[in-house]
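In response to a reviewer's request, we include the raw inputs and outputs for one of the modeled complexes. The two entities were modeled together in a single run.
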Amino acid sequence: MHLIDRAKTGDRQAFAALFEQYRNLVYKTAYLMLDNTQDAEDALQEVFLQVHGSLASFDPRKGAFTTWLHRITFNFCLNHRRKRRPLSLEDVSIIPAIEFPGAQLAEQESVLLMLRALSDKQQAVIILRYYWELPYAEIAQILDIPLGTVKSRLDLALKTLRKMTGEGSDREPVSRMEVCE
Amino acid sequence: MKCEQVQPLLVAYLDGEVSPSERILIRVHLSDCTVCQQELDLLFTAQDRVRSVLQHRTVDAVPARDAWVRLEKRLTKADRPSSKSKAWLSRLAPNAGRASIRKIFGGVTMRNRLIASALGSLAVITIVVVLMARSVTPVSAKEILDRASQVQSMKIPTEGIGHIRTETYSNFQALPEGQGTDTVVESYLDFQSGDFRNVTTDNKTGKVLDVFAYDGTYSYSPDYNQESGQGGVINAPLTIYRTPQANASVSDMKLRGDNEAGSKDVFDLMRQDPDVRLVGQETWVDGRKVYVLQSQHIKVPVFDPAGKPTGLVNVYPDVNNQAPPPITVMKMYFDVNTYQTVGSQETLEQDGKQVLIRSQRQLVNEIMPVASKVDWSLGDVQGITIVDDPTRTHGDLLPEVVTPQALPTQNQSIYLLKDVPAGYSLEITAPPKQSANDPYIYVASYRTPSNDYFVIQAATPVDVQGLMGQADEIYTTVSGLKLYFTKDLTSSGKLYTSAIVETPDGIAFWINSTLPRETVRAWAENLVPAK
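The model returned the following structure tokens for the whole complex.
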């Protein structure tokens, strides 16, 4: 019997195995979206509680388990962020600097700061595409948005980042208004 | 292609997400346009940097070692039937999944619902004569359903004692024939006083599995924290707690319509099915003739926290899905003279055979004279031990009326409309003595004298994710509440709107209303936590 089917019947060991297998998926997404370990730990707990409560309704015919899990994780993170004050470029300066080795430091830091200044929704598509390397169709399914919206969000997000980091281009500050859709 | 056409496609081009024809056109354009080439290079670099930063950022991001230990503690707590409230809610929709939880609707008070679900079809007896007088042999399934619906919407009598005995077979695990749960529920209701008793017994062994009764002074029920739902300790007599509950404090006893027979969810699905058909006539268990209607639906099981299937919910076909969906064949039986629903049956095809999933048969349905003797205090019920519960710590109590001021202030899970709409009055009912650690269970019912309503009802730990596929509209309020509207129901010419609402904090509750969807959307903008 498949692990998920076993977990569905209330098999705690199977659920533990499921947790072991997918905890990094949830944790890493939460860490990227929420930016600190404490919130990521909380997200891991809450997401798996929700998975446990909802597993019965998971229907493999409607999509892969990971798609479903990503969806729960992103819903949680987006809700969590919504409750926090929106981040603006002005806030970026107060976030503790991330340690990057040597020469990479400036570039990595700068990209990270720019990523953080993107809207929540843009960050979500960026993470799903360039961290998890998922196809657009699956991203659309996870975020419950049309395929065209995935394309336009990625396009806008990438162009914003390109504008901010691109060599030979202007490095003018980008306002929140421009970054958000 | 021109630059302004190509540039919006460059990111998707790099990601391999353009169509083959777009790819060719972009390539042709790039071979001849240095501006777009440069843009492509910059986007490629940006992607590369983003990937690198994200990877670098998560190199050391790993969950704490004790993550599973902490989660398991919480899972164990969540699995426990931790409060009476849960038992109370589960009573409202016995053997039912989410689909019927929705049908606690109507804002019929919880107590009424309980009574009505057991005794709903009693009402029909009073109007049999009327219908018989204009009885014409129906020619279609639709006509039978319309008449049955008309019968169901009739008012419940004001005096006498309703008596119904229903046999229910449940086999949501689709086990081979005869291995499901076979129970009989015997219900009495005094229409005038509201006293009632429901006794559920195992049809095979005669063992009492569940009791819920009210005699005007005491409520009678098992302790659901100890007995873990129906059944409790095998072979031991069921302990029933007699808990004082003053008649004046329980919520309004007056039945207000929307009464439902036990198989109302099946009935509603049939009414929504354009392909429902009249199979023919059969002889019922008591010798009368019944019409048999048949309808097919795609259904999936729902499970309780322990993973046991507790019901079936209707799902809508997924057009992208290649696998054959689970088809449930439903049959409903209607008295050819009265159009009363007397039973229903659901079967699921498995390995080429039809397996019985659920059946309900009404064996008795009568109104006894006012003076009939029924022991509301359960003195005549064998196989139970009645224990006094003077401190109200064990018994499952009937809901009581609560004022908005008396709602628990720290509980974030209660939502109400900001103001009571003009022409409406608000009544909140909730089970007493709820645990402060659990989401508060309540029904807030806004009603007009003509019985239009807008009802907010706490949901059981509902899975909003699961409902996403079933919602035909998702509406988000300015405050971030997400309303998942389920398909509107029409019954007796009246429209019913239903939605499950998810708050930004992950709390879920139902809204059921006779108002049209656009009004429900507008009112939802005024939903606020009741602090």
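As requested, we also summarize the result in words. The domain at 1-84 of chain A is CATH 1.10.1740.10 (Rna Polymerase Sigma Factor; Chain: A). Chain A touches chain B through 71 residues (CB under 8 Å).
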